[in-house]
Design a protein that fits this description.
Elements (H helix, E strand, L loop, with lengths): L8 E5 L5 E10 L5 E7 L7 H12 L6 E3 L1
Parallel strand pairs: 1-4
Antiparallel strand pairs: 1-2, 2-3
């Protein structure tokens, strides 16, 4: 894994066409290697914009913290 930090919020389209948010937390071990924990949220959204708005309201996300897949 690279040492470039991952963006904490991943918005991806599932097989049914809905968008879902994955919240990612990065921490580092004693050698400085990044360990990423990803948690898929239960909510689904019709658009990526709706998912982004939800993340801003409920998780305190800011611009630039999103990755799209």
């Amino acid at each position: 894994m690279s040492r470039i930090p991952v963006r904490p919020f991943l918005i991806a389209k599932d097989e049914e066409g809905h968008f879902r948010i994955t919240v990612r937390e990065t921490r580092y071990n004693s050698q400085g290697y990044p360990l990423v924990t990803a948690t898929l949220q239960d909510e689904t959204f019709k658009t990526a914009t709706a998912a982004r708005t939800h993340a801003k309201e409920h998780f305190g996300a800011e611009a630039g913290q999103f990755a799209l897949k």
